[in-house]
Amino acid sequence: MASPARSSQVTASGAPRAGGSGRLAGRTVSRIGFGAMQLERLHGDRKAAVALLRRCVELGIDHIDTAQFYGDGFVNDVIREALRAEDDVMVVSKVGAEPDPGGPFPLRLAQRPEQLRAGVEDNLKALGVDRIPLVNLRRTDSGPGLRARGDQVVPLDDQLAVMTALRDEGKIGAVGLSSVSLDVLRRALPAGIACVQNAYSLLARTDEDLLGLCEEEGIAWVPYFPLGGAFDGMPKVTDEPAVRAAARELGATPAQVGLAWLLHHAPNVLLIPGTADPGHLKANVAVGEVALDEATLAALDAVPSRPADVAFD
Description:
This protein has helices at 4-7, 46-58, 74-82, 113-127, 156-168, 182-188, 208-217, 241-250, 254-265, 278-285, 294-301; strands at 21-24, 27-30, 34-35, 63-65, 90-95, 97-99, 107-109, 134-138, 145-146, 175-178, 193-197, 220-221, 311-312.
């Protein structure tokens, strides 16, 4: 039998946890997970999408981030087919938006309490489970993306009331928040918050105080857009001279350096880089082997933060 110390470093399948082990909603998971959004690019090749998720398991990933609005349900459907109970993968979802195929953007907000409940129910049905270990409430307080207008401007307390009710009913295991400000997190702490997902990268560090509060409170920090550059006007980490210099020195890619910096920056950081390519997936997992010495970290830490808060009406 493996020792407790050893068992915390491997997944249920016996693979070393990608990036080492971290904590999420009271559970040990791989620090490098998988953001499933890009699986929708494989809509025309379902077999490849299933194979990519099976490869995640083989590579030691046991934390997958999804949403019912990814690919209008396609991504969750593939997750249901690909993952097995014995894989013991923690599948995390989110609510607060819904597909809008005919709109100016592929998504529209769904912030009202009844929409949040419906979103959880849709995720449960699509994933074929009775309980989702963690569901993140995507708000619109900060970061790039849509901004709430009209009846989509909903008080935090009303949203937390339905999320905690779903937790009490056993339909979700824990509540997380996404795209929130420091003030919103402070107000939400009494509800018991397990995770925060905000846009954050080497070049977008205005949420440093928020990250610090999460570390103090034992809340996982799961950054989205970890390499920036998601929209026009957002700088790309991979274009930063200090990042490219470190990559040359280490024999790594600039993307790997940018992700490795996040893992080194704080112990509560968990990564969920996404891809539809098996080679890229393997490169993301290899980030856990990228060691940044003090001089390299100092050079990267000295890079100025210059986020672009791109918002859409």
